[in-house]
Amino acid sequence: MSSLAPVPSILRISAAIALLATATGALQSPPDHKSLRGSVRIDGSSTVFPLTEAVTEEFAKIAPKVNVTVGVSGTGGGFKRFCQGETAISDASRPIAPSELSMAAAAKIDFIEVPIAIDTLCFVVHPKNDWMKSISIEQARRIFSEGGPRTWKEVDPSWPDRAIKRYSPGTDSGTFDYFKEVVMGKDGTIRTDISVSEDDNVLVLGVAGDLDAIGFFGIAFYMENQSRLRSVPVIGNAGTPVVPSAATVLDETYLLARPLFVYVNAKDAARPEVAAYIDFYLANVSSLATEVGYLPLTKDQLSKATANWAARRTGTQFVKDGKRVEGRFSKLYK
Amino acid sequence: MTRPEASPTARTRSSHLVLVACALAAFIAVAALASLLLTIAVEGTGSLSWKFLTSFASRKAANAGILAPLAGSVWVCVICALVAIPMGIGTALYLEEYAKKSRLQGIIQLNISNLAGVPSIVYGLLALAAFVRFFGFRSGEKPLSFSIEWSELRVLAPGNPDSFWFVQAPFGSGVLAGGLTLALVVLPIMITASQEALRAVPKSLRQAAEALGSTHWQVAWRVTLPAALPTMMTGAILSISRALGEAAPLLVIGGFLMVLQTPTNLMSDFTVLPLQIYNWSGRPQEEFHRIAAAAIIVQLAVLLAFNALAIFVRQAFQKPLQS
């Protein structure tokens, strides 16, 4: 996919819109769960929480007697409880780690791995910004770092000699956390003179109204505002710029994206209320993912996930012989 | 020895200065509290409604309510009070009225005073191991459970989780574990306050009762305890207020954030008001900050209700002391 054009092609965007449009369809008419009882305990990632929260709220409407509870101990904290058998489902913003896998094995806990959506990040500038054709993760780190360049020219000598205006989502948002993690790295310090807003619409207005502005948020939100903003292609592993779009995220040439998962305890999966919950999750996750700002999986990935869940396929596909399997999610997940 | 001329003015001046400093300190404390309450009232009253009190959590602020955390807080605090108040008073009675001044008593005393300063999250870790997991008892397996069927007068095993009389071992992160955790947190406060109350009872009262031939227990139950109870209730107020405001230890034992049912028995999953407030105020959207403020108002109302109860007990037991 390294031959991608550096400017968004109409084809790609329309493909993305089509994908989003199918995803935003009405909730599927649910089977009758009114008489279903029991409890489903969930804990884990705060990134997955908004999605699980939305699914749980909708599920409670069709299965009012099932007591679903959701906690946010973080992905690692969630796996700890999961491996104690305390929770039936664990939310995770990354695949299970080798150490967590051996913890589960030691506790004789079998699990089913279910990918549910994609978390993304994209950089946006004013549509009339004609100098920034692409951005490398290194450049992004410098632009947002404490003590970094003040003007565009200091980033790249061919760029204008005007001050950069930076916009960022609030520090409480999952997008900000992800930005810190993948762009700033462990020892990066984010500069303090950034315009921060918890309301993504304020960011759109800010960037759309200022020629020298740069900001970032989830791709789903950019898709809704692409008439007012221009997204900046990010230099990929092949060294060429990759346009952020549903397609490049899903084929993983675009770097700033990660899959989100739920892990289901195999013993609990035999309980009808847990099974009904995950069935409902998979049936509705795509439309709800768009609502809370994540990218839905492709039809192919979702049907693989659904098939693996239906077959109750246990174990992870991302750890082999005690080591993390490197590679693209779309290639690895079968 | 002649007194310097300026001395009386300097003395009065320093006296005035202290008065001003104290008044200023009091004013700053009250002003900070007043401004906090005012901000919350302005921000939160608009979102307060019957629907807000009777709805469960939602991803949309307009539909969100606090029924689950409100019920959770009340359950947990009642359990905490039922455990911590009798245990605190009992411990204080033992230490003040029964225990001989010994090395052991000294060690217990030292421990209690120091425990009051331990961060509550540490109690959370202890409670996680002790109450939630029973130190690994049946780890990874289904807990032992049973419930009592009163109509047929028999014990069901495994128990019926819908029954009010449902118990399991280990407890898991239900309201009972939550209440016991908070009881651990507030016990040192309750014990110390009760000890102070017992110490304030004049010796002559006890001596008079003993002179009439009362046993140790009769003195404690009929004389010392009634005289000390009003002050003990003040300790109870402090303890329950602390318990109601705690979030950290409950987060450690695995308190949930999104709960769509109110507790039905001691093993029910729960969430509490401070956790919900923390979650809402941390969300990006402005509407959630407003309902967080509304939840703070509800929390203050619950706090006042608990304290009113303790004050009522205090008034009911207060007898004039003549010594």
What does this structure look like?
The complex is a heterodimer of chains A (334) and B (323). Chain A has 14 helices and 15 strands. By secondary structure, chain A is α/β, with parallel strands linked by helices. Chain A has helices at 10-23, 49-62, 74-82, 98-106, 137-144, 152-155, 174-184, 200-208, 219-224, 246-250, 266-269, 272-292, 299-310, 329-332; strands spanning 38-44, 66-70, 89-92, 111-120, 122-125, 165-169, 195-197, 213-217, 230-231, 234-235, 241-242, 257-265, 295-296, 319-320, 323-324. With 323 residues, chain B is mainly α. Chain B has one domain (30-133, 170-293): MetI-like (MetI-like fold). Chain B has helices at residues 7-44, 50-54, 67-98, 103-115, 120-132, 175-199, 203-211, 216-245, 248-252, 273-281, 286-317, and strands spanning 144-149, 154-156, 166-169, 258-259. The longest helix of chain B is centred in the N-terminal third of the chain and has 38 residues, at 7-44. Chain B is globular, with a radius of gyration of 25 Å. Chain B starts with 6 loop residues before the first helix and ends in a 6-residue tail after the last helix. The relative contact order of chain B is 0.15. The model of chain B has no long low-confidence stretch (mean pLDDT 88). Classes of the chains: A alpha/beta (334), B mainly alpha (323).
